[in-house]
């Protein structure tokens, strides 16, 4: 009896030795761990949702292997400015960005998907164009949890928009909060932070965000700082007041104690391009002082927003319905048209900054009878209608009852290439993760939705050598995670969450254009999110492994919470 028992034991031990030790092994590639160090020939092993090994040769086998020979293996990319708030509700794959290696979408520029009241929900429903969805949440935490439950390929995170507490307490008019109202607004920020928000995001050229004064922003951001949060901002000006706007960001960071990141840093409008030198000098002086000031960008010479950015704030006060109604009043229209033809005195006039209606491309309209104008410039539409560009812009907004999605050609290529090389600049699409199918094809979009990250790594890193591959990866991954105060994402390091991208540096390329934007980038073969393959052999899988990435004040796991001072948080040093 002993011999059969011994034989069985030996067979069992042998089978244990052959048993897979990892769920997934990426082998044969050049590993860029996210630190900025040069790549090395190595392997990345994954067990469950975490990285189990990073090094030259994994000590064991895996149930599944990915051959990355000739390719780069890097941490998943972080989109520092995502507008996937709505698109992921109807298509959780987010293919336009998943296929570029993005594994974390950070949302919340100015307005976030919670907290909401009934009026805000009604407005969200009214402004839905092609992407339609029910609003069955109220708080930001409920929105994020619902998105995760619905199923998304990528991780999601959000700031609380500075607009949300303002609208909840003050409405959409040009009013200042009382001390009691401001304290209540701070309580709203604190609650959102404890639900997982990463900080406060502002958008100061859009109504009603533009009505917020510096002291109000300092109060909200100070609350976020006590919760380990960041301040991210679409500044008050990116044109004539660029330098002054940068100084306001620095002031808010200094007074609140929070790190600050400038969304899509740019000088918008040819007359203002020379101001970028001074703006960068102020940022770098603040960083030398020890303030945590950084920025992000998209790698195109055009931005995209609505025609509201071409009209004065006063005509938009009180909400969209009031705006549309005013644009039907001949006396109001005459005054608005006159202001649209000149540089904004106290506001950012992007029509003027772009140099004229021929530099505005209309890409999104809701009503079927207006959709033939999609893909035409405002100048072309004005000629077709026999009206001035200013009158045409007002007509389109009033008739469509939307902001009217518009691309503005504002920046110089030289400026784009220069910023790509700056060590403190990160990257964000400022767009929605979409799919080149279904409802998304009913409108145009900015090519940055489909190409921002691939264009960075192809055009600017490989072809033009504006920065090294390892440094671009650092800023796409670990440095972005550090700015967001995330502890265990953004690096290929044992124990970190397994968000990994495999791509070919020699072949990665964007294909989307301003006239044909719904074209996927190529060159990314695998994307792993929380240890699961979300993209395999360049195609999305059925897995939806994305999770909510919450800030460190999140109380849902029984810990966290907001602390007494921003200095209590162990922030990463400025790099």
Short recap of the structure:
The chain is an alpha/beta fold and 575 residues long. It has 19 helices and 21 strands.
Explained architecture:
The protein starts with a helix and ends in a 35-residue tail after the last strand. The strands form four sheets. Strands 1, 2, 3, 4, 5, 18, 19, 20 and 21 form a nine-stranded mixed sheet that branches. The chain is built from 19 helices and 21 strands. The radius of gyration is 24 Å and the shape is globular. About 2% of the residues have low confidence. 33% of the residues lie in helices and 18% in strands. By secondary structure, it is an alpha/beta fold. Helix 6 crosses helix 7, helix 7 runs parallel beside helix 8 and helix 9 runs parallel beside helix 10.
Radius of gyration: 24 Å
The profile of the biggest β sheet is: 9 strands, mixed
Net shape? globular
Helix/strand-derived category reads alpha/beta
Described by its quaternary structure, the protein is single chain
> What is the overall number of helices?
19
Q: Tell me the β content.
A: 15-25%
Give the helix level as a range of percent: 25-40%
Mean pLDDT: 94
Tally of extended strands?
Answer: 21
- The parts where pLDDT drops under 50 for at least 5 residues are 7-16
**In whole angstroms, how far apart are the ends?**
68 Å
């Amino acid at each position: 009896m002993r011999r059969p028992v011994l034989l069985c034991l030996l067979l069992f031990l042998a089978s244990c030795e052959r048993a897979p030790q990892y769920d997934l092994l990426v082998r044969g590639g050049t590993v860029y761990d996210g630190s900025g160090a040069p790549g090395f020939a190595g392997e990345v092993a994954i067990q469950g949702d975490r990285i189990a090994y990073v090094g030259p040769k994994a000590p064991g086998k895996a149930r599944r292997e990915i051959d990355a020979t000739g390719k780069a293996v890097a941490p998943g990319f972080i989109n520092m400015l995502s507008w996937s708030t709505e698109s992921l509700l109807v298509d959780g794959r987010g293919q336009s960005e998943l296929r570029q290696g993005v594994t974390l979408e950070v949302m919340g520029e100015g307005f976030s998907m919670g907290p909401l009241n009934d009026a805000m929900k009604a407005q969200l429903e009214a402004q839905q164009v092609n992407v339609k969805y029910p609003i069955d949440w109220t708080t930001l935490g409920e929105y994020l949890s619902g998105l995760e439950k619905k199923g998304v390929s990528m991780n999601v995170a959000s700031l609380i928009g500075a607009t949300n507490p303002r609208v909840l307490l003050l409405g959409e008019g040009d009013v200042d909060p009382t001390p009691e109202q401001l304290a209540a607004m701070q309580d709203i920020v604190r609650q959102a932070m404890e639900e997982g928000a990463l900080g406060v995001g502002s958008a100061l050229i859009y109504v009603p965000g533009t009505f917020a004064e510096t002291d109000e922003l300092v109060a909200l951001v100070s609350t976020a700082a006590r919760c380990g949060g960041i301040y991210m901002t679409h500044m008050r000006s990116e044109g004539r007041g660029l330098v002054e706007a940068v100084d306001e960001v620095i002031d808010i960071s200094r007074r609140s104690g929070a790190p600050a990141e400038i969304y899509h840093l740019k000088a918008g409008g040819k007359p203002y391009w020379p101001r970028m030198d001074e703006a960068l000098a102020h940022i770098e002086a603040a960083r030398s002082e020890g303030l945590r000031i950084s920025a992000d960008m998209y790698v195109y010479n055009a931005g995209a927003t609505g025609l509201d950015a071409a009209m004065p704030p006063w005509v938009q006060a009180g909400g969209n319905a009031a705006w549309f109604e005013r644009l039907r009043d001949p006396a109001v229209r005459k005054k608005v048209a006159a202001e649209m033809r000149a540089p904004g005195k106290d506001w950012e006039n992007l029509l003027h900054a772009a140099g004229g209606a021929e530099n505005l491309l209309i890409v999104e309209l809701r009503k079927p009878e207006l959709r033939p104008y999609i893909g035409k410039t405002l100048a072309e539409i004005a000629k077709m209608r026999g009206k001035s560009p200013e009158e045409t812009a007002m007509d389109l907004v009033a008739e469509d009852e939307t902001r009217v999605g518009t691309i503005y050609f504002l920046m110089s290529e030289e400026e784009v290439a220069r910023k790509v090389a700056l060590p403190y600049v990160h990257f964000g699409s400022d767009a929605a993760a979409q799919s080149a199918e279904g409802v998304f094809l009913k409108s145009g979009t900015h090519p940055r939705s489909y190409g921002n990250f691939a264009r960075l790594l192809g055009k600017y890193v490989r072809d033009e050598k504006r920065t090294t591959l390892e440094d671009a990866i650092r800023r796409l991954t670990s440095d972005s995670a550090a700015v967001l105060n995330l502890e265990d994402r953004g690096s290929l390091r044992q124990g970190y969450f397994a968000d990994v991208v495999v791509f070919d540096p020699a072949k990665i390329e964007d294909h989307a254009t301003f006239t044909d934007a719904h074209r996927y980038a190529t060159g990314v073969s695998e994307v792993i999110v929380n240890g699961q393959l979300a993209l395999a052999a360049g195609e999305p899988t059925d897995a939806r492994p994305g999770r909510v990435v919450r800030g460190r004040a999140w109380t849902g796991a029984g810990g966290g919470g907001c602390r007494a001072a921003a200095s209590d948080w162990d922030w990463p040093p400025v790099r």
